[in-house]
Design a protein that fits this description.
Radius of gyration: 19 Å
CATH topology: Growth Hormone, Chain: A
Helix content: over 70%
Largest sheet: none
CATH class: Mainly Alpha
């Protein structure tokens, strides 16, 4: 009964996250954007810079949103994000704006990222101590459900109509999200300290003063360098090298998210009982090995097989988030999670630049070696975290 009561309280946050994830993955954060850019004649290295601009916007803004979520009504923050991004989605269809796509990517990253820390901090505040792993895994489960639906929806629309209509669909979904937030999300779910100025320095001070936090945040960078390959360059590789159709590429990305959708709750349950550190190390080591298998995949069928297996291994993404309560107090979750999210964004920002350079200079296949190395290093970092402080 207690679990059901807690789940009802966090349900608006999970559903808000789901709608946002679908809207985003249907165009800008799914397979459509890199394929759209490719269709405009923009090369891999230039695309890497554009993708990095999106991550830079998230990196610069996420700590602000996270800190504000500790002091400001979260509903207002999410409404700002939903309404502003609904406009940005449509702007990407204007060919005259191609020279300023890098600015639009930066703005989209900064404005869209508000949903992440606001829903994360709310879930962290409302999670029972003994079920933090489960509730963190559910956050990622709803996010991944959107990552299953969004790529299929966006790629189907793009293949049936055009790329532009995928962006229009994302814009409509963002407007629908705004109405959902107004209708269902609590105005002020709990009293929070007022009058504090959001500062990334306080979050960074935690990283500098705690060895466990330093290792945890560095792991986030490395793990999300790997995730950036899935988001930004696997669609280019599948479509350009393996010659998969737009819809096949959308289904490929959805298959990775789909396997995570099934395996994340199970992994959350396992991590709460057998140790989050051990589970994370196993997850990132397996991911490193499976990324190397793309090196040998030469057909759509083989790409799908590797992707299904990789989806299970990548289910450990949420485990770093589940370790945060060991280094932060309840009343600062928003600030710490926002700062942690900036380190995730740093990985997503670094990855595309590296992959774009490697793709252009050495060849597409070598991006998987770089990605695998990052995952091995992440596993090594997590392994060195003091078990007594983070489980």
């Amino acid at each position: 009964m207690r679990l059901n009561s807690n789940l009802r309280r966090v349900a608006p946050a999970y559903l808000t996250l789901l709608l946002w994830s679908i809207a985003s993955a249907a165009s800008l954060s799914g397979p459509i954007m890199p394929l759209y850019i490719q269709s405009l004649g923009i090369g891999a290295m230039e695309w890497g810079v554009l993708a990095a601009a999106w991550a830079l916007g998230m990196f610069l803004a996420e700590w602000v949103w996270g800190s504000l979520s500790d002091t400001v009504d979260r509903r207002r923050l999410m409404l700002t994000s939903a309404l502003s991004t609904s406009v940005l989605f449509a702007l990407f269809t204007v060919r005259a704006l191609i020279p300023v796509f890098i600015v639009l990517e930066l703005l989209y990253g900064a404005l869209s990222v508000a949903i992440g820390p606001t829903t994360r901090s709310y879930v962290a505040n409302e999670s029972p101590e003994k079920s933090i792993g489960l509730y963190a895994s559910l956050w990622w489960t709803f996010f991944m459900l959107g990552q299953v639906i969004g790529p299929i929806l966006g790629s189907f629309i793009a293949q049936t109509l055009s790329f532009h209509y995928s962006f229009y669909a994302s814009s409509i979904l963002s407007i629908a999200l705004a109405f959902f937030i107004l209708w269902s999300f609590p105005t002020d779910e709990k009293s929070r300290e007022k009058g504090r100025n959001p500062s990334i320095l306080s979050g960074l001070r935690l990283v500098l003063n705690s060895r466990a936090a330093r290792l945890l945040f560095l792991s986030a960078v490395l793990v999300f360098v790997g995730r950036s390959l899935i988001i930004d360059f696997l669609p280019l590789y599948a479509g350009g090298v393996i010659r998969m159709s737009i819809l096949q590429v959308g289904i490929l990305l959805a298959s990775i998210s789909g396997t995570q959708l099934v395996s994340m709750p199970a992994l959350g349950w396992i991590s709460d009982r057998f140790g989050r550190k051990r589970t994370a190390v196993l997850s990132y080591t397996l991911s490193a090995l499976l990324f190397l298998l793309y090196f040998f995949a030469k057909s759509p069928y083989q790409m799908f097989l590797v992707s299904f297996a990789l989806g299970v291994a990548l289910s450990g993404l949420f485990l770093l988030l589940a370790l945060i309560p060991t280094i932060a107090s309840t009343d600062t979750y928003g600030k710490v999670i926002g700062t942690y999210g900036s380190f995730e964004d740093l990985g997503i920002m670094i990855g595309p630049v590296i992959y774009g350079f490697v793709w252009s200079v050495y060849g597409p296949i070598y991006i998987f070696i770089i990605c695998s190395l990052a995952q091995f290093l992440a596993a090594a970092c997590v392994m060195r975290i003091d078990v007594r402080r983070a489980r």
